[in-house]
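Q: Sequence in, structure out?
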Amino acid sequence: MLCVSKSYISFITCRVHGNELCGPGVGASVDAKLYAKDTIRLRSLIHQLYENIHLKPLILAPGGFYDKLWFEQFLDASGPSTVNALTHHIYNLGPGSDTNLTSKILNPNYLNKISDTFQSLSQTIQANGPWASAWVGESGGAYNSGGEHVSNTFINSFWYVDQLGMAAKYKTKVYCRQSLIGGNYGLLDTNTFVPNPDYYSALLWNRLMGRGVLDVKSNASPYLRSYAHCTKERAGVTLLLINLSNQTEFRVDIKPTTSTSMHANVRPNHKKRSFLHRLKQIVSWVGSKSLDLSLSREEYHLTPKNKYLQSQTALLNGIPLQLTEDGDVPGSSPVLRDLKSPVYIPPLSIKFIVFPNFNAPSCPEV
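A: Exactly. Output:
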């Protein structure tokens, strides 16, 4: 199981005692109060077995699809500090056999629907079990092994990085991806073990997105998805831009002020590009500290090979992400841009942008 803990990728070994038994369950279900009683007993056994050991196993439960009433009853019945984290599963793209998977992934209104689950779980924990944290215990986009020629291709990264950003926004501490190997949704190809595009998306997230989550406000098109975090283990802010539009290019101008939010203004650009009239939409970044214009920003731009969204090869700044002759993961060097220049995010692409000298109040000095 591969997990992203806010900004860290890690492997977690765990024992599963029943799967997806909460709420109506999948095939079977267990009453919340009975589940709580068994969990209390498990906690007691762990304390006995690890009595003289400082580092004890975590208890994660229930490992199923979120049901508000069931989760509330479980927290109330199990009591303080019985569970360390509430785990829930997400397969919001539906079955892997769905012929509309690609249109769902590129539909911002569809992607937004799962935010209700994240928000409700966060509120449930705050009201009924503030000692616990929220984990996505399993998520692969589309269930039943994912979608063939979709879940293992570049287009799936639009769903994946967007959901990582959304999960962090709603205080999710750990996000476990189904799966590392196996099915169409594996991060590694089942036959060759070569990384699929989502592997590299997760790798960039891990290297660049820190634990501090910043608020982003935009009145631009919903097809421009944006998330911002404190940069991992160094000063600055990392901005993630996801362009779901197949013809609109977005332009981002940097404007420092005294806030930590993002504002967007939209203006049409009637210049023709590739026989298409594209809109250049302006997004203004608002920060807390004047930018030193002598420094550069880092850009990590992900696109599909040959502009084919269902390619199994991703490009980073135009260079194919492929294993080296020794089988090592390739480097991820950024393109450096002058901070004074605007940021452009072309259609159907993903870009991580690091502003190394941008100091947001909620980000620690490094």
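Residues 211-257+295-365 form a domain with the Immunoglobulin-like fold (CATH 2.60.40).
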